[in-house]
Amino acid sequence: MQDGTLDRPLAGKVAMVTGASRGAGRGAALELGAAGATVYVTGRSRRGRPAGGYERIMAASGLAIMRGSIDETAEEVTRLGGRGIALPCDHGREEEVEALFTQVEAAEGRLDLLVNNAWGGHETFDGVFDAPFWAHPLAHWESMMDRGVRNHLLASRCAAPRMIRQGHGLIICTTFWDRDRYMRGNLFYDLAKATITRLAFGMAQELRPHGVASVAVSPGWMRTELVLAMHRADERNWRERPELARTESPRYLGRAIAALAADPAVMAKTGTALRVADLAREYGFTDTDGRQVPAFVLDEA
């Protein structure tokens, strides 16, 4: 790896990625590390001690154990050229979240980027995604709103005053957004993701005067560890599954986040919902397999 801002555009920057044991959070943390950032990798899963609450989706996916941990992600961040630091946190517990930000502030004296990704929606997944709202369990509200949207809000409330004091910063909320189209068959998921998108918009209105940006970033259908497990596939053979043809790796999202974090004009995007595919065209990056994967588009039926 060569020295220089083109090779390591986030060198000297400090980021926090919540819910980064696996999936989207892990993809974001790895790409921020590859861009040279110090990355605080947070979540509940430690090496050898996976977080609880995933029993239903593990059963649906045929998994005996939940793979991934903040320790493994942090180590990979460092291997890729950044500085990965694993800090455990239950992002639904206000006192733990505040203590986390206090610890990072004491250690670094700054926080340039917060990636809100901690998400409880998997905890109530029962193998059914497409059903009328009256057929879905009400438990989805608690997992997706109370342990999903609320997680984003708690971390943002802690990050905002610190970023305001330093006069800059970027808050990114991972979401799903397809130009306000309705995700038919899963009202709870649609509500939660729309609320996260609106949260990013609302925060931007109050943070803009202080030079702090807030955006929502929407990947397409990601080949997370859980998606691959549900399709009995892995990164070596997923191309043999026609139903996975429209998928993208979590690092595609990570590259979008790294590009936004390195953009000195990111304030021009504050308050917007951004699709990874559109950012790939704008910033010129590709997925890990060299493709610029098209945006995932919902049917309008």
UniProtKB/TrEMBL annotation:
InterPro entries: NAD(P)-bd_dom_sf, SDR_fam. This is SDR family oxidoreductase. The lineage of its organism: Bacteria, Pseudomonadati, Pseudomonadota, Alphaproteobacteria, Acetobacterales. Pfam families: adh_short_C2. It comes from the Bacteria.
